[in-house]
Amino acid sequence: MELFEKIGGLPATLLFLFFIFSSGVSPSIGGDILTPAQPLTDGQELISAGERFILGFFSPIKTNNRYIGIWYKVSPPTVVWVANRQHPISDHNGSLSITANGTLIIINQNSKIIWSSGSSGLANPVAQLLDDGNFIVKEANILGSLTWQSFDYPSDTLLPGMKLGWNLTSGLNRNITSWTSPSDPASGLYTGAMDLHGNPQLILWEGSSQLWRTGSWNGKTLTGIPDILHYKIFLLEFVINNDEVFCMYHTTNTSLIARLTVNYTGICQRSVWLDDSKMWISYLSEPKDPCDYMSQCGVYGVCNMDDSPMCSCLKGFKPRSPTNWDLRDWRDGCMRMTELDCRNGTDGFVTMKNIKLPDTSRSTVDRSMELNECRAMCLRNCSCTAYASADINGTGCIIWTTELIDIRVFSFGGQDLNVRLAAIDLGLGLHHSHSRTMVGILVGSVLGILLFASVGICIWIHRRRRTGAVPFASHRNNECEEGKEWELPSFDLGTIIAATNNFSIENKLGQGGFGPVYKGKLGEEQEIAIKRLSKTSAQGTDEFMNEMTLIAKLQHRNLIRLLGCCTQREERTLVYEYMPNKSLDTFLFDKDKAVLLDWQTRYNIIEGIAQGLLYLHRDSRLRIIHRDLKASNILLDKDMNPKISDFGLARIFREDETALNTRRVVGTYGYMSPEYAMDGVFSVKSDVFSFGVLVLEIISGKKNRGVSISEYKGNLLAHAWSLWMEGNGLELVDESISNSISMVEAINCIKLGLLCVQESPKDRPTMSSVVLMLGNRNTSLPDPKRPGFFPTRARPEVESSKSKTDSASINEFSITTVEGR
Ligand SMILES: *[C@@H]1O[C@H](CO)[C@@H](O)[C@H](O)[C@H]1NC(C)=O
Ligand SMILES: *[C@@H]1O[C@H](CO)[C@@H](O)[C@H](O)[C@H]1NC(C)=O
Ligand SMILES: *[C@@H]1O[C@H](CO)[C@@H](O)[C@H](O)[C@H]1NC(C)=O
Ligand SMILES: *[C@@H]1O[C@H](CO)[C@@H](O)[C@H](O)[C@H]1NC(C)=O
Ligand SMILES: *[C@@H]1O[C@H](CO)[C@@H](O)[C@H](O)[C@H]1NC(C)=O
Ligand SMILES: *[C@@H]1O[C@H](CO)[C@@H](O)[C@H](O)[C@H]1NC(C)=O
Ligand SMILES: *[C@@H]1O[C@H](CO)[C@@H](O)[C@H](O)[C@H]1NC(C)=O
Ligand SMILES: *[C@@H]1O[C@H](CO)[C@@H](O)[C@H](O)[C@H]1NC(C)=O
Ligand SMILES: *[C@@H]1O[C@H](CO)[C@@H](O)[C@H](O)[C@H]1NC(C)=O
């Protein structure tokens, strides 16, 4: 549960889900049954017995094309199956009928058959829409006479009870393929399918290349998704027998509305509909980090998100091309330090723990063998490179007799992998294996090292890169597909100059902490934002480097994405994805624009920020305290999804550190926790405090001025607290959204906000609790204690570091907050 993620953003979701349904819907033609006597015409519907699903005509957004589909009866309706996905009907004159011999056909305005289900040869056929979303053809009144079912021909969605995989007898291969775009259900680029080679596993294809694999089934879970076990609401089933190989899931509570989709952006998501908030909550999105992508580290390479760099060689192996490897080009992978010595029988095995097993399409499986036999068999076969048990309970045997690819290490879950090594390599220390020491050094040392490394990478990539660099985020482009770059690409100065029209004043978006921010365009399409370090700003250099080194390593949809940097000649610029909706404060604190942020959007923003912060605090490779969370540092993309930005003041902390102390108090007046402002002590809980302030600001549309308690009205926390204590919490809610509000959610959010701003850091929840609280609307939250008001009289350092953001909030990238550091 803790890891659950929300779908990208509400507006995006709405956009996607909000199909324009036929106007003037006429009544359904007879419940859930279609008979040869009466075709289904545009405007008519079949409704499943329990009213969960509807079958009828629909148009996706931004098109008038008509399709016959099945959708969940939720609002907005969510299409789960499309019959004529490749063959739209251009007007409202199409119809669906069942022929006298039991073939479903769709006829267009010219009476031409544009889709058919294949013939069935029934005597008295009917088609029926079942309450699990299956549309079946059968003999009327005869049970078990099914001859065709929509479940055998999935679109982009797998519903509970649907099989993803093969009927080996008939050769039927059921897979899910994304739509081309939100307005076109035709088969898109991404397909999730069962691969039968070796030990079966599910593979996400992008065209003809493999993007991600789930790993094989180990009796309990898919080895590539260990966290699946946390989601108790889903039961996963994986069947391998002589007739069938398929994967299927059920929900533990059958009344849950759930789906698994492969989205046109190439993400697999399992989501559940929350009826009270009218949205889909995503429980798992894959692939989720760079290590998930196929063979990131080459042959015999191991990917570990906790390490930096993320790729290392298996123990007993060394990089094949040391120079490239050091430069983080991992494509060539690794090779043995010492060749195996099969004949003398001196080889042995090193056991690696918490592993996503190497690609099993190149493996041989014997499900009955015991592990010691497995080991013996591997030793006997000179081409055997590794073995593992097929079942997590220790039975069964998987043997690899080829090079090992696509191995990753998890921090929990995964399996043991036994890699065969020559005797001499068995005794080796942690030489080239994935080493924690590296992390230690990185995290433990001052940012200097990071900074140095990162500049190096930048320069290096710059040298070997063609112009018009590709954002590192586009892992699907060729270079990254080959497993090369998750580090920061460098942009050519010429490209930057061209993109910003030579830093022209027209392109200037605003003034940031360490220099101006410009809007730019890469080629025709891609809009970017460019932050330029002023040549004169000496102190900005630190923030620039800090930002560059930190964000380059972070990957989350709720964090601003750094596309690259440019450090050529005197110029130092950072290139970001462009955020057309600027920052949250430009909406929140503007009377006219505040109405655009309805309750759902605000809730979505709160959740997004929480997810982003959780990632920083806990889930990213580095553990990071942002230290300057505030409305102007929350940027909004075109769908109003929040992205945390500005890492100029962020700090890495080690796992064993709970709080750090600093002499220099930086941050923004009004968002700073009392212990930090007064004593310079900061911890994740200071970010939680700032988050709490943000939540209350988002709900109220008012700014927390951070003034003294005596100036009662200006202090949002004081105001919120007193309303809460009087039992009038809802009065806090911004008037401009009073019509879209969900009272239960609003009350919970206010309470949550107040919990986060409690005076004592210990009382404040961690971000993972916050995310849980936001996700589970039924948990009753504890009662908040009094907030930590901003101190009446701050220490001198704080006074001098008072923010000057307000005037600059028009910035695309709001400024860092501190003057005198
Ligand atoms: C596809 O998935 C991504 C990642 O979860 C999400 O941001 C995006 O909104 C999704 N698109 C649609 C149309 O659901
Ligand atoms: C489609 O139906 C409309 C009325 O709904 C009619 O005006 C039009 O002529 C029809 N088109 C064809 C090709 O039959
Ligand atoms: C069923 O009917 C359709 C159209 O009427 C025809 O094309 C098909 O051959 C028939 N199939 C069988 C098995 O009779
Ligand atoms: C697999 O296909 C065969 C041949 O069409 C069919 O007889 C069998 O029932 C199918 N198996 C399952 C489990 O659906
Ligand atoms: C998906 O299924 C279709 C239809 O069975 C098949 O033609 C296609 O090859 C499958 N794709 C993959 C990647 O298995
Ligand atoms: C281990 O799991 C396999 C398959 O799930 C099962 O057949 C076998 O009986 C289990 N063995 C033990 C010892 O539990
Ligand atoms: C199942 O879910 C429904 C609706 O979400 C809920 O009302 C019901 O209490 C749940 N049942 C169980 C056993 O959890
Ligand atoms: C077997 O081991 C011996 C001594 O370690 C070595 O000299 C010999 O080359 C090895 N044989 C093979 C076939 O590798
Ligand atoms: C080693 O195992 C592979 C896969 O099981 C098999 O194809 C090969 O014939 C075996 N080689 C020897 C020498 O036994």
TrEMBL record:
<keyword id="KW-0732">Signal</keyword>
<keyword id="KW-1133">Transmembrane helix</keyword>
<keyword id="KW-0472">Membrane</keyword>
<keyword id="KW-0067">ATP-binding</keyword>
<dbReference type="InterPro" id="IPR011009">
    <property type="entry name" value="Kinase-like_dom_sf"/>
</dbReference>
<dbReference type="InterPro" id="IPR024171">
    <property type="entry name" value="SRK-like_kinase"/>
</dbReference>
<keyword id="KW-0547">Nucleotide-binding</keyword>
<keyword id="KW-0808">Transferase</keyword>
<dbReference type="InterPro" id="IPR021820">
    <property type="entry name" value="S-locus_recpt_kinase_C"/>
</dbReference>
<keyword id="KW-0418">Kinase</keyword>
<keyword id="KW-1015">Disulfide bond</keyword>
<dbReference type="Pfam" id="PF00954">
    <property type="entry name" value="S_locus_glycop"/>
</dbReference>
<dbReference type="GO" id="GO:0005524">
    <property type="term" value="F:ATP binding"/>
</dbReference>
<dbReference type="InterPro" id="IPR001245">
    <property type="entry name" value="Ser-Thr/Tyr_kinase_cat_dom"/>
</dbReference>
<feature type="compositionally biased region" description="Basic and acidic residues">
    <location>
        <begin position="794"/>
        <end position="805"/>
    </location>
</feature>
<dbReference type="InterPro" id="IPR036426">
    <property type="entry name" value="Bulb-type_lectin_dom_sf"/>
</dbReference>
<dbReference type="InterPro" id="IPR000719">
    <property type="entry name" value="Prot_kinase_dom"/>
</dbReference>
<dbReference type="Pfam" id="PF11883">
    <property type="entry name" value="DUF3403"/>
</dbReference>
<dbReference type="InterPro" id="IPR008271">
    <property type="entry name" value="Ser/Thr_kinase_AS"/>
</dbReference>
<feature type="region of interest" description="Disordered">
    <location>
        <begin position="778"/>
        <end position="821"/>
    </location>
</feature>
<comment type="similarity">
    <text>Belongs to the protein kinase superfamily. Ser/Thr protein kinase family.</text>
</comment>
<feature type="domain" description="Protein kinase">
    <location>
        <begin position="503"/>
        <end position="781"/>
    </location>
</feature>
<feature type="domain" description="Apple">
    <location>
        <begin position="342"/>
        <end position="422"/>
    </location>
</feature>
<dbReference type="GO" id="GO:0048544">
    <property type="term" value="P:recognition of pollen"/>
</dbReference>
<keyword id="KW-0325">Glycoprotein</keyword>
<feature type="transmembrane region" description="Helical">
    <location>
        <begin position="438"/>
        <end position="461"/>
    </location>
</feature>
<keyword id="KW-0245">EGF-like domain</keyword>
<feature type="domain" description="Bulb-type lectin">
    <location>
        <begin position="31"/>
        <end position="150"/>
    </location>
</feature>
<dbReference type="InterPro" id="IPR001480">
    <property type="entry name" value="Bulb-type_lectin_dom"/>
</dbReference>
<dbReference type="InterPro" id="IPR003609">
    <property type="entry name" value="Pan_app"/>
</dbReference>
<dbReference type="GO" id="GO:0004674">
    <property type="term" value="F:protein serine/threonine kinase activity"/>
</dbReference>
<keyword id="KW-1003">Cell membrane</keyword>
<feature type="signal peptide">
    <location>
        <begin position="1"/>
        <end position="30"/>
    </location>
</feature>
<dbReference type="GO" id="GO:0051707">
    <property type="term" value="P:response to other organism"/>
</dbReference>
<dbReference type="Pfam" id="PF07714">
    <property type="entry name" value="PK_Tyr_Ser-Thr"/>
</dbReference>
<protein>
    <recommendedName>
        <fullName>Receptor-like serine/threonine-protein kinase</fullName>
        <ecNumber>2.7.11.1</ecNumber>
    </recommendedName>
</protein>
<keyword id="KW-0723">Serine/threonine-protein kinase</keyword>
<dbReference type="Pfam" id="PF01453">
    <property type="entry name" value="B_lectin"/>
</dbReference>
<keyword id="KW-0812">Transmembrane</keyword>
<feature type="compositionally biased region" description="Polar residues">
    <location>
        <begin position="806"/>
        <end position="821"/>
    </location>
</feature>
<dbReference type="InterPro" id="IPR000858">
    <property type="entry name" value="S_locus_glycoprot_dom"/>
</dbReference>
<dbReference type="GO" id="GO:0005886">
    <property type="term" value="C:plasma membrane"/>
</dbReference>
